[in-house]
Design a protein that fits this description.
Blueprint (H helix, E strand, L loop, with lengths): L2 H24 L6 H8 L3 H7 L3 H17 L12 H16 L2 H15 L2 H14 L1 H12 L8 H16 L1 H6 L6 H19 L2
Helix pairs in contact: 1-2, 1-6, 2-3, 4-6, 4-7, 5-9, 5-11, 6-7, 8-9, 9-11
Length: 202
Amino acid sequence: MTAPQRLTDRKREAIIQAAISEFRANGFDITSMDRIAATAGVSKRTVYNHFPSKEELFAEILGQLWARISTEQSLAYQPEQPLRDQLRQILLAKLQLMADENFLNLARVAIAATIHSPERAQNMVARMREREESVTVWIRAAQIDGRLKPVDPEFATHQVQGLLKAFAFWPQISMGQPTLDSATQSTVVEAALDMFLACYQL
């Protein structure tokens, strides 16, 4: 990679970080490309060279959020392994992602920008569901193997992930509570496993 390309990449990242900061502070509608340029320390022309519109810049921020979600540990179902051990690994990976401050910052921006726009909210929910498919796939495989009851896999996925988010996502997003330490993460996961397996394990 050449030096000019690295400079371009740095400017692009500065624009994205400035946009995250401005969207968080002022919301999507009030934030202007002028303000983003000033916060990033670049010209307005530079901002538009990278992102033709505020909507495309916001889409890039959402894209980074989805990319972080999609890199979560996704483990394939293992017929010979205990269900609890497998699901524990999946849920701990999710909690570790939720404890990442960069992820939480992106999530706050996305949620704040969708509150006043049903269209954005619908798109966000749809994409979040796509990225949470790994748990659904695992549940479905365990059902086919005869180890879980025949509940709707998507329903069960929302249930178990809701147990995590009640402690490790929504309090941090909405009330500014600190992220969970490792011991608390383990406690939350084990309690979620107890409830899930007591309800659905055959």
